[in-house]
Specification:
Elements: H1 3-22, H2 38-101, H3 111-123, H4 126-144, H5 150-162, H6 172-188
């Protein structure tokens, strides 16, 4: 006889004996083609369910943390830009008032405002940068004009209080560009 036939016949006899001992109604995993043991099936289901549930928890935590980190970075960037723009406006205001009654005798007066402008160049939108450059040009033009008398300065101040829309403020376009940019950034948070 062929050894393969003997081996297969031997396996079939063992299977038949196992079925005979346990009966056909009892589930067993010893015999191929019979149902799994319910206890084993329950244990495997519990383990797989725990893995899926744990993976979902880890995934949700990761997404939440990433969104939180992005929100913190945007909030920090907004605060940084607000501070930078405030410094620029304060420095330009000082220079603008100085330019009204002084000539352009010391170019070093513009050093701080140029430093701030270049910091703006690093982080801001083109609209804000162009407005900053125009503001500096307007201040330099004011320095190059003849100095104003105290009466002329007072008249400008009075005109501004009467109709602030009619008087041109060289810093206003910069401030408005900054406000638009910051509003857009806040919309991303």
């Amino acid at each position: 006889m062929d050894s393969t036939f003997v081996s297969n016949r031997h396996d079939n006899l063992i299977c038949a004996a196992a079925i005979g001992k346990k009966g056909l109604s009892e589930p067993t995993s010893d015999v191929p083609g019979t149902p799994m043991d319910p206890a084993l099936l329950s244990a495997l289901s519990a383990i797989l369910g725990s893995l899926v549930g744990g993976s979902a928890s880890v995934g949700a935590a990761w997404v939440t943390q990433k969104a939180h980190t992005t929100r913190e970075l945007m909030t920090s960037e907004i605060r940084k830009r607000e501070t930078l723009y405030g410094e620029f406006i304060a420095e330009c205001s000082k220079l603008l008032i100085d330019a009204m009654d002084h000539t352009f005798d010391a170019p070093s007066k513009l050093l701080d405002v140029y430093a701030i402008e270049n910091r703006i160049r690093l982080t801001s939108t083109d609209e804000v940068l162009v407005a900053a450059e125009r503001t500096i040009v307007d201040i330099v033009r004011q320095y190059l004009e003849p100095t104003l008398t105290n009466d002329a300065i007072r008249e400008r101040a009075m005109a501004y209080t009467r109709d602030y829309l009619a008087v041109e403020d060289p810093i206003k376009p910069f401030a408005e560009a900054c406000r638009r940019e910051l509003a857009a950034l806040r919309g991303l948070v």
